[in-house]
Amino acid sequence: MLQLERLRFGLILRGSVVAFRAMSDATEGPRYKLARERGRDSFSKRMTSTPIDLRSDTVTQPTTSMRQAIANAAVGDDVIETDPSVERLQDLCAEMLGMESAIFMPSGTMTNQIAIRIHCQPGDEFICESGCHIYNYEQAAFAQLSGVSARTVDGEFGVLHVDQLRDLIRPDNEHLVRTRLVCLENTHNRGAGRIQPYESVLEICEWAKENGLRRHLDGARLFNAAVATGIDLPDWAQHFDTVSVCFSKGLGAPVGSALAGPKELIKQARRARKLFGGGMRQAGIIAAGALYALEHHVDRLAEDHANAQVLADAVRQSEGLSLQPEIVDTNIVIFRVDPSMGSASQFVESMREERVLAMATAPQLIRLVTHLDVNAEQVARAGDVIKQVAALLQE
Question: What's the CATH code, domain 38-59+300-394?
């Protein structure tokens, strides 16, 4: 009797599944039916493959050789200036940028904010592009920590021209904030890795110097600009009083940034670093990763730039998608999804189902970033996924 009941239940359940599938086939649209069929065919393959992570160049894992360098790092106490790995990193960074001195810090936010602090006093103002990292992604720390205000200017995908700035210096009047500093970002994150043209940098910095303004460069991805243009790092850096560079983006180190400039300013920066809680003891452990990156990962950035072009071409070949901007300078690709295809988040989710990770940065915008953890074959696969998802969502 028990076996008979089990058989009867199994037949009922099987009939319900068949009926449900028939009802689904009759009611679902062709887009979802195709997606379901493709999902059946590729599910096993996709679930066993490693995700292709294009969300940021900060997601990289230390290479085996970098891990060995970190494990074998000579360390001391950097707070009392006895860590040999940190000292070596700072010296190399200053040398590569053609500047007198440099100081290692935990993050690019800290290097930028300390630069602003040593250039400005409470009640001062700095000029920056409206989409820059300092203004958008650092919690207005310049106001919270240093009593400084920002005056923003809209660039063309982050690129500024000197004529936009000429009338922005406030007169010497006790009623007004004091204009003291110009900050540029090169390459520009929200501008899809755009390079601030060298001629424009030169014109802006010369104008600022003539008018008594300090100059700071947020060069978190300055190495990308140097590799892409063939213009050496010291040539970029020489026009600024201070330059911030990051080791944990395209260079692939796990932690850290540095601020470079004249010795006297870096001495002030060291004092501010202590104030901001950035003093580190056996920091050579993380400095070793940054050192390895400087010595081995700079020239290979050209590979990331070439891979970004593959992704850009995939976007160009996909109806309903458009690059923002059309020209891709370095390793960041931003594209717009036509609202008729859904939102950027929906497009990203469809890519994720194919094991390609991207980032929605606005309701209709998606960012892709190439880096040392994705190779040419993986990028080609990601490009195919972009075209497939776009075609699917057009139906």
Answer: 3.90.1150.10
Based on its alpha-carbon atoms, the radius of gyration of the chain, rounded to whole angstroms, reads: 26
Tell me the C-alpha distance between 371 and 110, whole Å.
Answer: 23
CA distance 5 to 1: 6
**Dihedral (Cα; 15, 18, 21, 26), 10-degree rounding:** -100
394 pLDDT band, cuts 50/70/90, is: confident
Q: pLDDT tens, 287-342?
A: 999 999 999 999 999 999 999 999 999 999 999 999 999 999 999 999 999 999 99
Return the structure tokens found at 42. 């590729």
Give domain limits for the chain. 38-59+300-394, 73-296
User: What is the sign, positive or negative, of the torsion defined by CA atoms of 279, 282, 283, 286?
Assistant: negative
* C-beta separation of 191 from 159 below 8 A: yes
Residue 101: phi and psi, rounded to 5, are -150, 165
Instruction: Read off the pLDDT of residues 124-164 as tens digits, 9 standing for 90 and up.
Output: 999 999 999 999 999 999 999 999 999 999 999 999 999 99
Sheet strands (E) in 138-246: 149-153, 178-185, 214-219, 242-246
How far is residue 133's CA from residue 188's CA, in Å, rounded to a whole number?
8
From residue 194, alpha-carbon distances to 75, 92, 189, 199, 301 in Å are: 38, 26, 7, 14, 15
pLDDT over 70 (residue 228): yes
Cis peptide before 62 (omega within 30 of 0): no
| Measured distance CA(301)–CA(322) in Å, rounded | 25
Residue matched to tokens 């071409």: 313
Written as six digits, the tokens of 103 are 């100081």
Q: Which of 122, 86, 116, 112 is nearest to 101 (CA)?
A: 86
Q: Which helix (H) or strand (E) holds 336?
A: strand 332-337
Which of 3.50.7.10, 3.40.50.1820, 3.40.640.10, 3.40.190.10 is the CATH number of 73-296? 3.40.640.10
The separation between CA 160 and the C-alpha centre of its own chain, rounded to angstroms, equals: 19
